[in-house]
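Help! Submission page says 'invalid entity' but I think these are all valid:
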Amino acid sequence: QSVLTQPPSVSAAPGQKVTISCSGSSSNIGNNYVSWYQQLPGTAPKLLIYDNNKRPSGIPDRFSGSKSGTSATLGITGLQTGDEADYYCGTWDSSLSPVVFGGGTKLTVL
Amino acid sequence: EVQLVESGGGLVQPGGSLRLSCAASGFTFSSYWMHWVRQAPGKGLVWVSRINTDGSTTSYADSVRGRFTISRDNAESTLYLQMNSLRAEDTAVYYCARVRNGNYYFDFWGQGTLVTVSS
């Protein structure tokens, strides 16, 4: 049972848009920055979004992040088959483990 | 080029020990907090431990506290995780990841090393 709650899976057609939610509490998302990580099959996680809505260099603007209260959302537009991966949200927590992650969301591009 | 290369994983019996290493290169190792994150087969990411830039402050997940010890050698740009009293539930890929001092995200991860605890 992860501290942050994500949907187990989402799917959409190529070219479409998808959003992935991440729900937490005041001890984590409510008072800390959220980051998002992409894990392609068989590879290590890779930073996708940091500080709620910033993209590292090299990450296309098809990927976006937002936060409101104790929830965060990852958005992906113009879906490509290469976007099929597991996506994790993460943040710091003041009451539990210092770092907490969501359970991960598997994106399928149909 | 930034690199984090883990090593030391393998098959170990319950109750046994392993020492993981994470060799860093391509950046100023001493400027980064370093963390270990693990991922059991088919499961999600779980934070394990962290150490501050000079090694004076460490934190652990409840599940490993008292059994695992994190340390670092800034002169050698290497992070360690000493794992004792291993259990079947410790079976996972262990990733090292860096966090720049003052930031709150993992900006680079190693490729991981698999630890299997089984008799």
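Support: the input was valid. A stray whitespace character was the problem, and the output above is from the cleaned input. Residues 67 and 78 of chain A are 21 Å apart (CA to CA).
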